[in-house]
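As noted in the main text, all predictions were made from sequence alone. Below is one such record, for LLM class flavin-dependent oxidoreductase.
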Amino acid sequence: MNVVPSASSYTSLHTAPADFPDSPLSQALRQPALLGLFLPIHHGGWSNSTLPRGTDWSFDYNAKLTLTAEALGFDLVFGVAQWMPKGGQGPTRTEAGLDSFIATASLASITSRILLVSTLHVLYGPWHPIHLAKFGATLDHISKGRWGINVVTGHRAYEHELFGWSRIEHDRRYELADEFVSVLKRLWTEEEPFSYRGQAAWQFKDAYISPRPLFGRPVLVNATGSDAGIDFAARHSDLVFVASPGGGDIDSALASLPAHTARLKQAARAHGRDIRTILNPLIVARETQAEAEAYAQAIVDNVDLASIAGRARLDSDAHAWRGHKGGDLRFGVGGAIGGNVQLIGSPEQIADQLVRLHAAGVDGFQLAFYDFEPDLAFFGARILPLLKQAGLRL
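Prediction:
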């Protein structure tokens, strides 16, 4: 039996989707700046406000958003995964929501070009590398190479306890995720059956996965701001979701992102790899700055403080948002407006801010909105043409 003690040494042998010129990821990377949509598949999206809007977590609503994004030329859509407790306080508390893996993968049947990224907590519950290798290869064929995994390790104590764990120490989670993903890569590429017994509970005998992914493996993504997460991204990920280390306002983001994105890219280069960074801005845009500011203020004026407080009570050891000001209702993850950077202004101002963020080392944008359907339509009609004029989109 070919038992190996570690999977990490095999990662350099694997081809990535970007190594294939005709892969969907390679086609997306021809854009000067990637453009994605952060689907609101959970109740309330990222915004804790009761200002009336149509944003909805249902599959039909998110499928419509995805088709609109694809028609506008967006490169990818992405959905968050959360395991939140029942109840809590406030009307916008995160409770109802679709599973990211199932919902995002289901979009393959109604789309033809856009990349589909499912968030998976690889350390929770029943996941075994053989399960995910087979599921992933199947989805890769159904989507013709457009499906990918946003690998997350979990940062809330509640979620670990839900699945029968005591919370795993932060850096140890990345060690386990490294083992899991390294084994996945072997399962997607080995020509002969192989057996494995590693540090964690995952082990198997004579595993072999068929069919093989079309372009080496599915797209791999993670979100991080920690040393351990950056090291993981450098070795495995094609795309990395980043937060502004300095906070959610545009000036703080522009000041702190250049060093942060440069560090990520240098870490990947040390492993002989290239990665792309993606930022998650929430955009509040209207025809004039005054109208946009008034709309943003209306969102804040209707803040759901009880829901924000309930989320804050869930113990987290995430590193990415440490620079965000929790007491500011406008700026900071989980505030009234939400997102991890907020862009507020006229179409010209929003386009200029995106151009400056791109110059700060951000390779793409995973957009969110307060009222997704009309705000996405406004972005497509009024801001996207300006990005093309500025050279960010072809």
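The CA atoms of residues 12 and 272 lie 9 Å apart. The chain has twelve helices and twelve strands. These features were considered when defining construct boundaries for the mutagenesis experiments described in Section 2.9.
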